[in-house]
Amino acid sequence: MEEDDANLQSFLRWAAALGISDSSISDCSSSSCLGRTLSVSHFPDAGGRGLAAARGIRKGELILRVPKAALVTSDCLISNDQKLSAALERYPSLSSTQILSVALLNEVNKGRSSLWYHYLKQLPQSYDLLASFGQFEIEALQIDDAIWAAEKAVDKGKMEWEEAAPVMCELNLKPQLMTFYAWLWASATISSRTMHIPWDTAGCLCPVGDFFNYAPPEEGNSIEELLDANTDRLTDAGYDEGVASYCFYAKRNYGKADQVLLSYGTYTNLELLEHYGFLLQENPNDKAFISLEPEMYSLCSWPKESIYISEDGMPSFALLSTVRLWATPMSKRRSIKHIALSGHRISAENEAAVMEWIADKCQALLSSCSTTIDEDILMLLVIDKFQDYTGEAELSPALCDEIRAFLESNHVTCEGLSTKLHVSLKTRRSVYRWKLAVQWRHGYKRILSDCISYCTRMLDNPSC
Ligand SMILES: C[S@@+](CC[C@H](N)C(=O)[O-])C[C@H]1O[C@@H](n2cnc3c(N)ncnc32)[C@H](O)[C@@H]1O
């Protein structure tokens, strides 16, 4: 712990020397880049390490500046390293993200002699993005779309690693930096920590700026609110060519010690898991996608991603209009299509058929899962106390099967679970990912269940 703190202090001094600052005036006297506006703090329930307000902050204030020279980009890593530059030239088909991954691992390979040593020491040692999920954790997601997304993420990681392997061999990286595990670490670092820059689609790593944890974008900023704040820009962070720096602005007012959050974008929980390795218990942008009958897709030309149930259980506009049209007798579809496409109900009878179809679809999806919502809640309690778990009494067969599958996939024997000491770090990571999978499927099922309640209310009281 003391070592971590000493590392953090060295990092903040290093960052100050590069001109990273949370002060609006230039202040060369301070040995740390933080302390006037922000401070590093720990938020166990909202992202772990993050940045807190060191004083009251007003919406729209500039809170952190990271000069271009402090940004970690492929350009800067390559221009400082002839061997890397020459090796990459021989592999022109690598993507911008693969190039940044190779350059990052090459930099880690340098150890203390890397110009970025203090920054690299601050990076997490492992991540929980979908690409790092094992087969058990993938199956624990239960819903086909999510399983497919996770398998695709793992396959993509493997393919990109295999393509980049020859260049890493040429660079003579240490064997542990050439493994698939190391590759996943580098690509997860890039996926979860890079920020947009106009000159490289891989983005840049932004020391200190990447300590901000995430909050979803706030909806409904009124024009007055936007004018009131110092906002001729509507985003909370971006590269500003005028001052050659990455600039971060407060999205709202903060009291002293509040966590200052950044919106990385609008994501469903599955997307947050895929790109950042976490999810939110309350995510206004979460969605449950349901598949339609094949012939429904040809009735309307809505993109597939617009056909969903939103976080509060309401079917989306595109879902409703498609099912309304499909529930209309074929001979009448042409004449009422404009009504369906404009989002209006077609008739009471049609609306009842629509609600029934959507509710049945949600119910079928829920019934196809091996555990119920209540069992998922219980599973989460078991997972939280997993290190103390000693038996399977009083749990349903589905939960016992899942626990057994976890133990088998991690080669843990029941005897080995009786004390905390017997659970290895690797198993603990796996327990954490399992928890993420169960939290995700629970949230998804809750949306489906809320949708069934919504449809039932509509059927019982069509005038709502
Ligand atoms: C850009 S980093 C933020 C700083 C990070 N906590 C750290 O210690 O370096 C993004 C990562 O922080 C974590 N994170 C950010 N916001 C979060 C939130 N609201 N809830 C849980 N984890 C979050 C996730 O692990 C994510 O991949």
Report on the structure:
It comes from Sesamum alatum. Helices cover 46% and strands 10% of the residues. It contains 17 helices and 11 strands. Helix 12 runs antiparallel to helix 13, helix 14 runs antiparallel to helix 17 and helix 15 runs antiparallel to helix 17. The protein is globular and about 75 Å long. S-adenosylmethionine (SAM) binds next to strand 2, helix 8 and strand 6.
Give the topology.
Elements lengths: L1 H16 L20 E6 L4 E6 L8 E6 L6 H6 L2 H8 L6 H14 L7 H4 L14 H5 L4 H27 L9 H14 E4 L2 E6 L7 E2 L8 H6 L8 E4 L4 E5 L11 E2 L6 H8 L10 E3 L4 H4 L10 E3 L6 H10 L3 H12 L6 H20 L5 H12 L12 H13 L15 H36 L4
Parallel strand pairs: 6-9
Antiparallel strand pairs: 1-2, 3-8, 4-5, 7-8, 10-11
Helix pairs in contact: 4-7, 4-8, 12-13, 14-17, 15-17
Bound molecules: S-adenosylmethionine.
S-adenosylmethionine (SAM) binds next to strand 2, helix 8 and strand 6.
Number of helices: 17
Work out the radius of gyration. 25 Å
**Fold-level CATH name of the largest domain:** set domain protein methyltransferase, domain 2
Shape: globular
Order of strands in the sheet with most strands:
3-8-7
Q: Strand portion, in percent?
A: 5-15%
The average pLDDT score comes to 91
Which structural category fits the helices and strands? mainly alpha
Quick one: CATH class of the largest domain?
Answer: Alpha Beta
**Helical amount:** 40-55%
The count of strands amounts to: 11
